[in-house]
Amino acid sequence: MAVREVNHPTLAYLENTPSSKQFLEEAKTVMPGGVTANIKHFDPHPIIMKHGKGSIVTDVDNNKYIDYLMSYGSLVTGHGHETIKQAINAQMVEDGTWLFGTPHHLEVEFGKRLQNYFPSLERLRYTNSGTEATLLALRLAAAYTGKHKVAKFEGHYHGGYDQMLVSVNPPVDLAGEEHAPNALPESKGMHESHVENTLILPFNDLNACEDLLRAHRNEIGAVMMEPVQGGIIPADVAFMRGLRKVTRELGIILIFDEVKTGFRLGLGGAQTRFDITPDLTTLGKAIGGGFPIGVVGGRKDIMMNSAPSSGADVFDSSQSKYFSAKDVLFHSGTYNGQPMILAAGMAVINILEKEINSVMEKTNRLKEGINHIFDYYGVEGGTVGIGSIFSVTLTNKEKISNYRDLQQTDLATRKEIDFRLLQKGIYTKPMNRFSVSTSHTDEDVDETLIAFDQVFQEVFEGSRF
């Protein structure tokens, strides 16, 4: 498909957000580049927010936006939900503190709630982020199998650490054959061994994946995947079933990274929706309602590798003559299972049990409305995604199946659309996905569709590709 040459409407953006630019310049005197996470940056400068309530965020120039970034999907109940505030306050009042540094009752109660919706979590452990969860999952898989090489899929993101920061967003001209992708590092400072020890698989291509895994069966201990790539491109059910079969046959641990999809495709995530049982699952983002949390869970025989043994711990100075630290899989963290966050997580489940169907209905109405606008203006493309998260693509492909398909879409025009939406009070970070929350209203959806229609008039002027 032809890609339009566009000039992004950055002039209006700069005129509307001068205080954000000024803030960033000051922030650069404190933090490299003015941000403490690269994902928060975009050119010419990110918008600096000062207030959020429900579905609305307000920036430092007092511009108001309907927020569809929702902190990259974490805020499944929106900003500042009163029920979550009450749950946090109640926990602090009842327990008298927000951190024990010891086991406590919410670790068990929240864990059982998760097991109810994710039956594959026979045992689980808490972490402080999705990144930490995937790190622990890899260690568990290596301890169980004795194999330290891992396989991941091209275009899938599992956290910003060396082993998984490979071929997340590779240049297609350097990425190698589609059926046998090259492993490419995504950061400075990475040792070449991480690239050598990470096998890259092509998403939604079962035959190629099976060939690669069989060829490396004696080296690969785990396959980690997003069952919905980037939260928007679902794996074909036949592909997941085939992958589940071949990994089980080869003794390779199958890890579902559901940090993006947990509570977003339903309370049981992608594995429940598609009836696929992984060996290990990682969770994060939405399950904590906007607070830092991660979970690793799965088969009891794998998870029990992390159970402490008497006299066998890196912090135990009186080692038993029968055990040493190397005999036990180490996992620790001062804030793991933080009571306040687990109280928030319990509240999130309570809210979603009542309102998740409404969230899905609003998401579907928004997607259908956007697709209708594409059709009305004769623009090739539409929405991609399932559950309460989706993205917008401009392409003549009938189906987006993987990273390379996504790279062939009209990314320049998508970016222009996003910047024009910002001027009309619709916020997501340009080029990012849309996440709908319980706080979004029917009026928000209506206003968003009006803005999309106005933007399509401006960009395409009613003409057809």
From TrEMBL:
The keyword Translocase does not apply. One of its GO terms (molecular function) is transaminase activity. PROSITE patterns: AA_TRANSFER_CLASS_3. Keywords: Aminotransferase, Pyridoxal phosphate, Transferase. Its cofactor is pyridoxal 5'-phosphate. Signal peptide: none annotated. InterPro entries: Aminotrans_3 (IPR005814), Aminotrans_3_PPA_site (IPR049704), PyrdxlP-dep_Trfase (IPR015424), PyrdxlP-dep_Trfase_major (IPR015421), PyrdxlP-dep_Trfase_small (IPR015422). CDD domains: OAT_like (cd00610). Belongs to the class-III pyridoxal-phosphate-dependent aminotransferase family. PANTHER family: GLUTAMATE-1-SEMIALDEHYDE 2,1-AMINOMUTASE (PTHR43713), GLUTAMATE-1-SEMIALDEHYDE 2,1-AMINOMUTASE 1, CHLOROPLASTIC-RELATED (PTHR43713:SF3). This is Aspartate aminotransferase family protein. It comes from Salibacterium salarium. The lineage of its organism: Bacteria, Bacillati, Bacillota, Bacilli, Bacillales.
